[in-house]
Design goal:
Largest sheet: none
Number of helices: 3
Shape: elongated
Radius of gyration: 18 Å
Mean pLDDT: 79
Distance between the termini: 40 Å
Low-confidence stretches: none
C-alpha cells in the first residue's frame, strides 16, 4: 500500500483582509497560522477547487499552449475544445469575464 498524502488542499486559517489596502507592517496580515502549514501553492485557497474550476484550468492551459493571446482567442479556443461555462453553454466574452471576476474575488 502506498503512502497517503495528508497535506491539506486549502488553508483553513485563511482570513479575509479587514482593510482594502493591507498593512505594510510585518505580521499584521494573516494568511496562514505561523508554523502551522508548509508553504504550499494552495496556502491562499479558502477551499478545494470545484471540478468545474479544475476543468476551466485545464481548458485555459490548452488554449494558451495553443497560442491564444486575446480574449476572443481564449473564448473561441475553449469553445472549440469543448470546455463550456458553468451552465454547460458555450462561452461568450461576457460570460468568461464574469466568471473570472467571480473566481478572482
Amino acid at each position: 500500500m502506498g503512502a497517503t498524502n495528508t497535506s491539506p488542499q486549502y488553508n483553513p486559517q485563511l482570513q479575509d483582509w479587514a482593510k482594502i489596502i493591507p498593512s505594510s507592517e510585518p505580521g499584521q496580515g494573516r494568511i496562514e497560522a505561523p508554523g502551522g502549514f508548509d508553504n504550499r501553492v494552495w496556502q491562499n485557497r479558502e477551499r478545494v477547487p470545484e471540478a468545474f474550476e479544475l476543468s476551466l484550468i485545464e481548458g485555459l492551459e490548452t488554449v494558451f499552449s495553443g497560442g491564444a493571446q486575446s480574449l476572443d482567442d481564449v473564448v473561441t479556443g475553449l469553445n472549440n475544445a469543448g470546455y463550456n461555462d458553468r451552465q454547460g453553454a458555450p462561452w461568450t466574452e461576457a460570460s468568461f469575464q464574469q466568471e473570472l471576476a467571480i473566481l478572482g474575488r
